[in-house]
Amino acid sequence: MIRSLAEIYPQLYLTPGPDGAETYKKIVESGAASPGTSLSHFRCTGEDRLIEEVTPAGPVPVITLHDRADFELFLQIMAHRCIPKDIPLTQGAAILDGVINWEKIRTHKTEFFLKNGPDADWGAEFDRFTSDRKNFKDALVILSYGPYSAVSAEKAGFSDEEWLRLSHIIRKTHECTHFICRRLFPDKKEPVWDELVADAAGIFAAFGSFDAGFEELFLGICGEEYSGGRLENYIDGEENRQDRLSSLAGKIHRTLAHFSDIAETCDPSDPYGFALRLEEEIGCWKIV
Predict the structure, then answer these.
(1) Does pLDDT of 286 surpass 70?
(2) Mind listing the pLDDT tens digit for each residue in 219-271?
(3) What is the pTM of this model?
(4) Half-sphere exposure (CA, 13 Å, Cβ side) for 144?
């Protein structure tokens, strides 16, 4: 599966580091070819998968990498421009929205000359074509395979096998919810709110109902207090950090009670519909 992706995104042939980062710029910014075609830096497993998830905002490719090292390497190359960077264990997925697809540009160029002749002005057409990001930029959902939010099966209350199955459902729905909300609500961007809605949709998909206790467990909230968890990934700066986390934990705890009320009126088989209801009826709030 990685090989088929590398044919579209040749930066995957690179390894993170100074040389890889420099070559990455040439490949991504100007469509240059990769100097090599080895993928030996990826481990790859027969369980890796690429599917297309149908959402209210359109289809989106979903890539599942079963080996944690492959997931981290994929993000270092594709999300961090081939620069080595630690990926926190609490991060098990990502959405890459705006990946340049030079194959789409080259295909359009061929079609353009076939239609308009060899003397047609490709420079002007290139500017027109690339003025709309939908023509040449892709969104990709990348998933690892492991316990959701680094929460153990024992802590979640399931067997290891069942928790891995549920974790994958939560993780896939979570990231696809980000894709939906960014497409349909582009003006509503606030990291913590986005995480709340995406987690809620994932829980709803896995269980057919919403359980605020699971969401608080994933984020590291106990009642109205912060006890340590994924929530701190979305807070910038060190000034008054613990106080801000504690204040935010209380705010989240109260907000999730509203989520529970809305969930009771939603179709158990439609997690994305639940997410849309949350956006439409509660809407994004700001951290103060």
Answers:
(1) no
(2) 999 888 898 888 888 888 878 888 889 889 999 999 999 999 999 999 999 99
(3) 0.89
(4) 22
Residue 206 contacts residue 166 (beta carbons within 8 Å): yes
8 A C-beta contact, residue 141 and residue 172:
yes
Q: SS3 of 16, please?
A: coil
DSSP 218: H
Residues paired with 140 in a beta bridge: 96
Cα–Cα distance, 164 to 185 (Å, whole number): 31
Contact 233, 91 (CB under 8 A): yes
Q: Which residue has the tokens 């980062």?
A: 21
Q: Is 193 helix (H, G, I), strand (E, B) or coil?
A: helix
Locate tokens 């997925």: which residue? 93
Q: Specify which residues 96 forms β-bridges with.
A: 140
Q: Which residues contact 172 (CB under 8 A, 6 or more apart)?
A: 53, 62, 64, 93, 141, 143, 202, 205
Please tell me the distance from the alpha carbon of residue 149 to that of residue 251, in angstroms, as a whole number: 21
